[in-house]
UniProtKB/TrEMBL annotation:
This is Glucose-1-phosphate adenylyltransferase. Residues 9-260 form the Nucleotidyl transferase domain. Belongs to the bacterial/plant glucose-1-phosphate adenylyltransferase family. Coiled coil: none annotated. The keyword Nucleotidyltransferase applies. InterPro entries: ADP-Glc_PPase, ADP_Glu_pyroP_CS, GlmU/GlgC-like_hexapep, NTP_transferase_dom, Nucleotide-diphossugar_trans, Trimer_LpxA-like_sf. It comes from the Bacteria. The lineage of its organism: Bacteria, Bacillati, Actinomycetota, Actinomycetes, Micrococcales. Keywords: ATP-binding, Carbohydrate metabolism, Glycogen biosynthesis, Glycogen metabolism, Nucleotide-binding, Nucleotidyltransferase, Transferase. The keyword Transferase applies. Residues 286-366 form the Glucose-1-phosphate adenylyltransferase/Bifunctional protein GlmU-like C-terminal hexapeptide domain. GO terms for molecular function: nucleotidyltransferase activity.
Length: 389
């Protein structure tokens, strides 16, 4: 039996404003995770491991930050002469030109390309969560269900008002609400959807015909509720790890989870999370340096103390400095005697000698230091602070 012709569309154009300065100069999917990876690596690796080789990445906000990392699809074996990776952005020249005003709007503007591609299944995934998933299972479940859309769902024990929340009965989704003030359940969508192409394109056209282009917005605003209302939506429950990292606190917390009790191994050869190769020497820990329960990317140099932290490529920690319960992105420099606690420090920031960031770490608040900023010697930034303010 021939494999279903699947088109994966990775929605990678969001600005990620809830991540504050972490997404000021990069798209959310380009944000580094785990010291060596980026968020977009998760859907692309899931695709590669699931045998999907037709992948479109839809960009908009700070597109260069994503495109540079994609490297033509090479890390995921998507650099092919037929199929493989295609990068799409806003365009001009036809009646659907213009900026994408949401995920549904982006798909509507690419509807002609989708129709010409003629897939059996359109799989749509966001690029702002950390998870492993066999997309082949999603596709098989969708084809077996005879539904218009399959939503991959998961139980979430935190604040669900930021997600699409569903109520399911016997595998059928009977209620869907986007970011509800009063959630009807703790069952949320993982932002992975399998669509029957004709149903997806028809639902997009119906919204435009009935309410106009401006009503499209995100999939959860009009398209998904309409499919649920007509009884055409089913769920596939994801029982493994899934963590949206759309806020500074969630981003920090996910890193700590991978340090304390990793939910899965990014280097598992049975399901590797692939990424673009880094061009650095190996990490170095000097004689007086101390590292415990931490992840160090290539090019890291530690002469001070690092505990329960994740250090990205090229980070340097000077003698006498302490880095505790923190996430340091590319090329950060921590000066002699400085102390950084429960903090996310964005790339190329400089923390000068004897500066103190994050207090004593006894509270729940996460401190954030912006990219390329300079924290002056002996400067103190309280727990939960933002620098610059």
């Amino acid at each position: 039996m021939a494999q279903p012709r699947t088109l994966l569309i990775v929605l990678a154009g969001g600005a990620g404003s809830r991540l504050e300065t972490l997404t000021e100069h990069r798209a959310k999917p380009a944000l580094r995770f785990g010291g060596s990876h980026r968020l977009i690596d998760f859907p692309l690796s899931n695709a590669a491991n699931s045998g999907i080789d037709d992948v479109w990445v839809v960009e908009q906000f700070e597109p260069e930050s994503v495109t540079e990392h994609l490297a033509g699809g090479r890390p995921w074996d998507l650099d092919r002469s037929r199929g493989g990776l295609m990068v799409l952005g806003p365009h001009r020249g036809d009646d659907r030109e213009g900026w994408h005003a949401g995920t549904a709007d982006a798909l509507w503007r690419k509807a002609g390309r989708i129709r010409d591609h003629d897939p059996d299944v359109v799989l749509v995934a966001s690029a702002d969560a950390v998870y492993r998933m066999d997309y082949a299972d999603v596709i098989a479940h969708h084809l077996d269900s005879d539904a218009d859309v399959t939503m991959v769902t998961t139980r979430h024990d935190g604040d669900v008002t930021r997600y699409g929340v569903v109520v399911a009965e016997g595998g059928r989704i009977v209620r869907y609400e986007l970011k509800p003030d009063d959630p009807p359940s703790d069952l949320v969508t993982t932002e992975v959807f399998a669509f029957t192409p004709a149903a997806l394109l028809g639902a997009l056209e119906a919204v435009v015909k009935e309410k106009g282009e401006d009503a499209l917005g995100d999939l959860g605003e009009e398209v998904l509720p309409a499919l649920v209302e007509r009884g055409a939506a089913v769920e596939l429950r994801h029982t493994g790890y899934w963590q949206d990292v759309g806020t500074v606190d969630a981003y920090w917390r996910a890193h700590m989870e991978f340090l304390e009790q990793p939910p899965f191994d990014l280097d598992d050869q049975r399901w590797p999370i692939r990424t673009r190769a880094l061009r650095h020497l190996g990490a170095r820990v000097h004689a007086k340096g101390e590292v415990a329960d931490s992840l160090l990317a290539s090019g890291v140099v530690v002469e001070g103390t690092v505990r329960r932290s994740v250090l990205g490529p090229g980070v340097q920690v000077a003698p006498g400095a302490e880095v505790l319960d923190s996430v340091l992105l590319d090329d950060v420099r921590i000066g002699p005697g400085a102390r950084v606690v429960r903090t996310v420090v964005d790339e190329a920031a400089r923390v000068r000698g004897r500066a103190e960031i994050g207090g004593d770490g006894s509270g729940d608040e996460v401190t954030l230091v912006a990219a390329r900023s300079v924290v002056h010697p002996r400067k103190r930034i309280a727990a939960g602070g933002r620098y610059p303010e």
